[in-house]
Amino acid sequence: MTMRAFDLFDTPVLPGLSYRDDFVTREEEATLIAQIDRQPLAPFRFQGWLGKRLTTSFGWHYDFANHHVGETTPLPDWLLPLRDRAAVFAGAAQADLVQALLIRYDPGAGIGWHRDRPVFEHVVGISLGVPATMRFRRRRDKGFDRASVDLAPRSIYHLSGAARHDWEHSIAEMARTRWSITFRSFAAKNG
Ligand SMILES: O=C(O)CCC(=O)C(=O)O
Ligand SMILES: [Fe+2]
C-alpha cells in the first residue's frame, strides 16, 4: 500500500503526522539559511561512516558513536522565536523543545531510513531552500506500508504518535541544497 500523507481535504492519513505550508516567510528563510551556514557544520558520523549531510546541534547532542545524549551549547537567541512558534504548532510546551538540530544537505545528500532516537519524543521540522519528499514506511508481514509527504520550503511538520514511533522516515538525495531545523523534546521516561 502506498499513499500520500494527506488526502484531498488535508486530513493526515498517517496518524501523528501534521504539516503546514508557509510557516516562515521568505525573509525569515533567508536569515535562517545564513545563520545555519555560519555554524561549524560537520559531517554526520555514524559508526565510523561519514554521512554527506552536515549538522550541528544545540541544547542536547545525541552521539551515535556511544549512544549518549550530552548537553551542548544552549539554543542561541536567533532560534528561540522559531522554537516557540514550532512548539505552538506541535502543541508542546516551548521549554520542552530542548534540542535543535541544524542540517544542510548539499547536492547528493539525503537521510536514510530511520526512526528518531527513543530518548526524544516530539519531532518538529522546518524545511528551507528547496522542496523535498519525506518518505515513510512501516514493516508488515509481507513488505511495507508506504506513505510520503512533500515538504515545501518554509513548511513545518510534526511527528508524534504512530508517525513518530511506528513508521520509519527518510529523505532521498536532492539535486540542490536543502536546509532543515529540527526541534525535539525528551521522552517522559528520561525524566
Ligand atoms: O531534514 C529533515 O527534515 C529530517 C531530518 C531527520 O529526519 C532527522 O534528523 O532525524
Ligand atoms: Fe528523523
UniProtKB/TrEMBL annotation:
Alphabetical list of InterPro entries matching this protein: AlkB-like, AlkB-like_sf, ALKBH4, Oxoglu/Fe-dep_dioxygenase_dom
GO molecular-function terms, A-Z: demethylase activity; dioxygenase activity
SUPFAM superfamilies linked to this entry: Clavaminate synthase-like
UniProt cross-references to Pfam families, sorted A to Z: 2OG-FeII_Oxy_2
UniProt keyword terms in alphabetical order: Dioxygenase, Oxidoreductase
Domain Fe2OG dioxygenase positions: 96-187
Keyword tRNA-binding appears in the UniProt entry: no
Coiled coil spans: none
GO biological process: demethylation
Name used for this protein in its record: Alpha-ketoglutarate-dependent dioxygenase AlkB
Organism: Sphingomonas populi
